[in-house]
Write a structure and sequence with these properties.
The complex is a heterodimer. Chain A is mainly alpha-helical. Chain A contains 17 helices and 6 strands. Chain B contains 14 helices and no strands. Classes of the chains: A mainly alpha, B mainly alpha. At the A-B interface, helix 10, helix 11, helix 14 and helix 16 of A face helix 1, helix 2, helix 7, helix 8 and helix 12 of B.
């Protein structure tokens, strides 16, 4: 085999998450009443547009989750030998980006390095000048042609994007032009049209990066000459993992304790309330800081337990999700307790108890299905906050591993560069653009989901 | 009311014990004091004497929670747990790992923190309420729609970018304010404006949108319709009925954070080099000074519980329907 698949700890949880999402989608598909709120989401133009944007992030994140070790040669018995370095499919797809390393900073679309160096001219004399980049615009004979070349490549990229877009639409219309036109002109398809326009924008961006990123450094390079665009792409997985796995790891505890406290009351309620009041009274940042510090000590004293740097960084990411989950499950738990307190007074729960239905069955059949909307709303609403939190935590060095690509680390390493002259702004700009697009889309989507699932809001509208 | 406050204060004791146990487990059981010493002293090969000395200097050389060798009550008291945790209840924070008096540091650094946090809260509250009231007044119009879009967009920007953007734009390019630093006494105001402005701006998005929801919730209620039916003007309805009732959740939401203002803002203070409690905490985290982190965790928990208590009391003050018992 030319490669050996690798499943890191977070990968496994991501697959579990996909499995769970698949199961719940299937379940929803089979039950008409569960589809109603989703239909309302589908009728919203903002939600559909935002969903397309999120979809692109998710695809990139998933590509970056499929890890493997490439083979490099064979050993004496003819068995393939694998590299120690763990790669992902995204790394493979972005090989030119990954390998086009410059010496140090260079501005976006620049053909020359940011700093002067002693350059040897063809006639043997030496001057101090900005040297040509090794990769950025290296295909040009004359760097002054760069502007024209960029325009040409951009137009080509947009054309590629538009072509892809038409292809996708035609697949949806089963290859029939007339079907597609009819669909497009149907006034009932407003939200889908918004989604289609967003898709056009996103595919154009994909086309642009296909034609431009290989030949130039679209977002420049950083201090050690790594392509910033590549870093931003790699950071997507970190952001998504923190935003989703944190809620995944906190959900079992929050749901179980929340409905138990509300349902059983008495001493169970007291104990659980005490537990979450204690946890939430510790300032979140400090709890995270304390836990991360302790983990650092543990890791530096037990270095032999980790096979590779990637594995270590991955475990640290998982640990950060865990500890963020510990600090954030309390609010969901409180909400669920309150809702369960209300639910257990209702006739159907009391009827179930009167019939002698056991506690476990009552909880599973009558309470849990009626609090799932709260869980869903909280999960969706929390996502953007967690993505933002990652950046802040990485800034104060208690976030992900410094070797992991993340927007927080990008900001952290770039903040001192603003003092340079001329200003090195591109790392910050790239982190800003990538983060803003994801968080904005998530916020817009979360708003619509909340409006659709919250019965209080549903009755009012 | 008095009985209620006393009971709540007593209820705080088990919670604080829980917090202490949690930090104790985190700091001393998961990693032994030996691990900490090795971490602090840096190198992989540290002599045992150096570790013992480091521990003795900081009082980490005692047994964790139960001293077998001691007699009587000292079995409990002559331990790290008693030394480092129980004393916190008397607000005796002891010495930091680098040998400074934590209690003194906190009382010094509290004031710069408050100098930033209080203006941000007061001015921010005024701006957020005015802006969201305007959105509620023009509800359903394009102004409202784009106002909400603006709020959501502002919410989606990381606080880091507000700070960096503000520093570059207002500090570096326009040269209006010093980028960072602090001065003693009254001269500090020049250094305070920029962080305060940034703190307010970064809070507008989330705050205004939340308050707008509260206002719209009130606007749909029966008593507002009655007020309109009486022939009151929209302004009178908005200020006299909607605002007054929506202020209840707004006020209680503010009261709960008042005590935590003392803790300062981690990000603002460390970016602007303001010697408050926020930057104190950040410094302690980056220097891995566990004594300070532990003291701040305890202080934060006390202030949080105080905030909850104040919230309950403020409910009875602004909403006569609520009775504490």
């Amino acid at each position: 085999m030319p490669f050996q698949p690798v499943i890191l700890a977070t990968d496994a949880l991501v697959y579990l998450l996909i499995l769970l999402a698949g199961i719940s989608a299937f379940y929803t598909h089979r039950h008409e009443h569960l589809q109603m709120p989703w239909r309302q989401v589908g009728r919203s133009r903002t939600a559909m547009g935002a969903l397309v944007v999120i979809g692109f992030y998710v695809v990139i994140g998933l590509l970056d989750t499929l890890h493997y070790r490439p083979a490099n040669g064979t050993d004496a018995q003819g068995n393939p030998r694998y590299a120690t370095e763990v790669m992902s499919v995204l790394d493979w797809a972005a090989t030119p980006l990954r390998e086009h390393r410059e010496k140090t900073y260079s501005a976006p679309f620049s053909t020359h390095l940011y700093m002067r160096e002693t350059v040897e001219l063809p006639d043997g004399s030496k001057v101090r000048d900005y040297p040509r980049l090794k990769w950025g615009g290296a295909h040009l004979a004359d760097p002054d042609d760069a502007a024209m070349d960029i325009v040409q490549r951009s137009l080509l990229g947009i054309l590629v994007g538009a072509g892809l877009w038409l292809g996708v639409l035609l697949i949806f219309a089963r290859g029939r032009w007339a079907v597609m036109r009819g669909w497009w002109q149907d006034p009932a398809h407003g939200p889908q049209r918004t989604a289609a326009w967003t898709l056009l924008v996103m595919l154009s961006l994909v086309g642009l990066s296909l034609t431009l990123a290989g030949a130039y450094h679209v977002f420049g390079t950083d201090k050690v000459g790594e392509d910033v665009f590549y870093q931003s792409l790699k950071s997507i997985r970190t952001g998504l993992v923190i935003g989703t796995l944190t809620t995944l790891v906190m959900l079992p505890a929050a749901i179980l304790l929340g409905i138990m406290a509300g349902y059983f009351r008495g001493w169970v309620d007291d104990v659980i309330q005490y537990l979450y009041t204690t946890l939430s009274s510790v300032p979140g940042v400090l709890l995270i800081a304390a836990a991360v510090l302790m983990m650092q000590i543990y890791m530096s004293n037990h270095q032999d337990e980790f096979n590779s740097l990637t594995e270590r960084a991955d475990l640290r990411l998982l640990f950060l999700c865990l500890i963020l989950g510990v600090t954030s499950w309390t609010s969901l738990c409180r909400l669920l307790r309150g809702e369960t307190l209300k639910l257990r007074q209702l006739e159907y729960v009391q009827a179930a108890q009167a019939f002698g239905v056991g506690h476990f069955t009552t909880l599973m059949r009558h309470i849990l299905p009626n609090v799932t909307h709260i869980v869903l709303i909280v999960v969706v609403l929390d996502f953007s906050g967690l993505v933002l939190a990652e950046a802040v935590l990485s800034y104060i060095n208690i976030g992900v591993d410094p070797n992991t690509n993340s927007w927080g680390n990008m900001i952290n390493s770039a903040r001192l560069e603003l003092a340079r002259d001329p200003v090195v702004w591109w790392s910050l700009a790239a982190a800003f653009v990538f983060m803003f697009a994801l968080v904005l889309a998530a916020n817009l989507f979360a708003d619509v989901v909340r409006d659709a699932f919250d019965p209080r809001l549903r009755e009012r509208s | 009311m008095m009985a209620y406050i006393v009971r709540r204060a007593l209820y705080a004791i088990p919670i604080l014990i829980g917090v202490n146990l949690l930090t104790f487990v985190l700091f001393f059981v998961v990693n032994s004091p030996d691990d900490m010493a090795r971490m602090h002293l840096g190198a992989k090969r540290v002599t045992d004497e150096a570790i013992q000395q480091w521990k003795a200097e900081r009082g980490y050389d005692k047994p964790l929670a139960w001293n077998v060798q001691a007699k009587g009550i000292e079995k409990l008291t002559d331990t790290i747990f008693f030394d480092k945790s129980v004393r916190l209840f008397a607000f005796d924070f002891g010495q930091s790992d680098s040998g400074r008096n934590i209690g003194h540091d906190i009382s010094q650094r509290m004031w710069p923190s408050l100098a930033i946090a209080v203006p941000i809260m007061l001015v921010g509250l005024t701006i957020n309420i005015s802006f969201s009231l305007m959105l509620a007044f023009f509800r359903g119009t394009y102004l409202d729609f784009w106002g909400v879009v603006l709020c959501v967009a502002m919410m989606s920007i990381s606080a880091l970018f507000y700070i960096i953007g503000g520093q570059v734009l207002l500090g570096k390019l326009l040269n209006l304010f010093p980028i960072s630093g602090y001065d003693t006494g009254i001269h500090a105001w020049r250094f305070l404006i920029l962080p305060v402005v940034i703190g307010i701006v970064s809070g507008i998005g989330a705050g205004s949108r939340w308050y707008r929801t509260l206002f719209l919730e009130e606007i749909n209620k029966d008593f507002v319709r009655t007020a309109r039916a009486k022939g009151l003007s929209e302004q009178a309805v908005l200020f006299g009925h909607v605002l007054r009732n929506a202020l209840i959740p707004i006020l209680t939401g503010v009261v709960v954070v008042i005590p935590t203002l003392f803790m300062g803002s981690l990000l603002l203070e460390s970016f602007f080099g303001i010697p408050g409690l926020g930057s104190y905490t950040i410094d302690a985290i980056s220097r891995q000074d566990f004594a300070i982190v532990r003291a701040m965790v305890f202080l934060g928990a006390v202030l949080y519980i105080l905030g909850l208590l104040l919230t309950d009391i403020s409910y009875t003050l602004v909403d006569p329907r609520v009775r504490l018992n």
